[in-house]
Amino acid sequence: MARKSVSAIVGRREEPALPEPDMSMMRVAVAGTGGLARLIAHFIQQDTGHHVVLLSREAKPQLSQEYQIVVVDYGNPQSLQFALRGIDTVISTVTGPNQLELIRAAVSMRVRRFAPAEFEGLPSLRVPNTPLDRGRSLARQWLASYSQHIQTISFVCGILYERFQPIGLGHSGIGLTPGLGSEGDYIMNCRTMSAQVPAYNANNIPNVTICMTAAQDVAKFVTKALDLPQWPAELMMYGQRIAVKDLVGLVQRLRGKSAFFG
């Protein structure tokens, strides 16, 4: 059986090549309205001449006072295609089937660049097809298969500092997937001082390290990357690299309490 082309799969129109885009003023769509999406939109609007829109599943009257909000139905290809008309770059903060439909629509509408919802550690180190993966491995596979039509990038930033704040990532509207964004879901709960610490390596040496970055710095980094003429496969950043045991020790000193290890 003849193999279908990517264009046939996504319904992408075969058209003559477009001229090189004006990199000084692009239309950028940020998918999602959570804390990280809002930070990215804020710095694009504040620090660049690009026009940014936020893709939302529902109307956001308060947020629309600051940003252009486009309501989309991820289950309706026409809705997504209409929202992406004239868009140069998509930055996704949504995962799972919604992100796959967004990729399909982006390729169909000749979007030039697509940054999937990564914003964690190296994708190659993450176990695919697990609750922690949230369909992101499949999204990267799709984007790799469309590489002749659309540029893509993974923003690798390690762990967000905001994981350790009161209420966890949910306090910033980030990582709202159940079991992933709450206080204490990762390494330790700074309020109750309970910890489950992967501090030892395979040789039983306590030298396991993590990289951490503030969500605001991630958003600034993503904004700067918009002006790169070509995107690499990955861009890595971190605000601090620290041994897990030292992180726990730092929290113990700041709180004046010992941690309980479960």
UniProtKB/TrEMBL annotation:
Q: Name one GO molecular function term.
A: oxidoreductase activity
Q: Where is the signal peptide?
A: none
Gene3D superfamilies cross-referenced by the UniProt entry: NAD(P)-binding Rossmann-like Domain (3.40.50.720)
Q: Boundaries of each NAD(P)-binding domain copy? A: 32-117
- What InterPro entries would the database entry show? NAD(P)-bd_dom (IPR016040), NAD(P)-bd_dom_sf (IPR036291), NmrA/Isoflavone_reductase-like (IPR051609)
Q: Tell me which stretches of the chain form a coiled coil.
A: none
> Origin, by domain of life?
Eukaryota
SUPFAM superfamilies according to UniProt = NAD(P)-binding Rossmann-fold domains (SSF51735)
Q: Which Pfam families match?
A: NAD_binding_10
Asked if the record carries the keyword Nucleotide-binding, the reply is no
Q: Which UniProt keywords apply?
A: NADP, Oxidoreductase
Give the UniProt family note: Belongs to the NmrA-type oxidoreductase family. Isoflavone reductase subfamily.
Q: What is this protein called?
A: NAD(P)-binding domain-containing protein
Q: What is the lineage of its organism?
A: Eukaryota, Fungi, Dikarya, Ascomycota, Pezizomycotina
